[in-house]
Amino acid sequence: MERRTFGTTGLTVSVLGLGAGQVGADDVSDADAERLLHRALDLGVTLIDTARGYGRSEERIGRFLSGRRDEFVLSTKGGYGVDGVPDWTPECLRLGIERALRTLRTDVIDVFHLHSCPLDTLQRDDLLGALDAARDAGQVRVVAYSGENDALAWAVQSGRFGSVETSVNFADQWSARHVLPDAAARGLGVIAKRPLANAPWRHAERPVGQYVETYWVRAQALGLDPRALPWDEFALRFSAFQPGVSSVIAGTARVENLERNARALAAGPLPADLLAEVDAAWAREGQGWGGEV
Ligand SMILES: NC(=O)c1ccc[n+]([C@@H]2O[C@H](COP(=O)([O-])OP(=O)(O)OC[C@H]3O[C@@H](n4cnc5c(N)ncnc54)[C@H](OP(=O)(O)O)[C@@H]3O)[C@@H](O)[C@H]2O)c1
């Protein structure tokens, strides 16, 4: 598994990370979650991304992987979800980080993100100060922002964050085109979320009201043809080799897909002619499309 430096943070991450949203779901059994998490590390995945809001994900990572904590970079997110404390307050961040450390059964969170707050929240000095304090106290190694569009651009140029997490896939190229060059030049680590574009090819009909719907509609408009490549491989190789991307956190609760994703990335970047087709389709259809939070 290819490893990459995570910006200038001093951390190193595998090109394939694990998006651990899915392993937090109630309909995934403890046994299946445990198997998936261990298989990820066994395959050489060294970045696991979770959040306060991902159901049982933080708790399962803590329970099942605390004995292998030195094998991976642990990324989580917060700013909300502490009982009795208003969201997006310094107190909520302080208590939320303490809570996450306990739940994740770790002494330090490698990457802690403000989770998709809007620009005016992101710019608040009291919140940024609370993050700096957690880093200075050794609870967090890298202070980060997860988000899109104007807030993401501000986060990168502010100098207050060591890394960012943002959508990067063939149907969501706003960040790759507008922010990642700046992020790379400034030495930020970049975690690419939704790298499979939520796998829209699995739906023959428009998945109305589902999470994947926006990308399904965009994929129809782009009309791409991965030719001989399976769609998952096409999608992941596109995302993982965008300039500036440190790691792609493909989300899955299924060992079979995790293994396919690891194999897909071993093939390297997409051929130049396929990339040119994606570029042309984007120029035709994608100019007005923003990043999906
Ligand atoms: N910061 C944020 O606000 C934010 C927002 C969205 C996501 N995220 C993070 O990013 C991660 C990934 O995002 P995502 O899950 O939304 O999108 P994604 O990784 O683009 O797509 C995940 C979907 O693709 C399926 N899948 C995975 N591997 C596959 C394969 N080889 N072939 C076919 N289908 C495959 C998964 O289903 P199966 O379970 O059936 O494999 C899942 O439904 C999340 O887990 C989370 O950590 C963060």
UniProtKB/TrEMBL annotation:
- Which CDD domains does the UniProt record give? AKR_PA4992-like
Q: What Pfam families does UniProt report for this protein, alphabetically?
A: Aldo_ket_red (PF00248)
Biological source species: Deinococcus maricopensis (strain DSM 21211 / LMG 22137 / NRRL B-23946 / LB-34)
Q: Which InterPro entries match?
A: AKR2_Oxidoreductase, NAD(P)_OxRdtase_dom_sf, NADP_OxRdtase_dom
Gene3D superfamilies noted in UniProt: NADP-dependent oxidoreductase domain (3.20.20.100)
Q: Where is the NADP-dependent oxidoreductase domain?
A: 16-282
Q: What domain of life does the native source organism fall in?
A: Bacteria
Protein name, UniProt field: NADP-dependent oxidoreductase domain protein
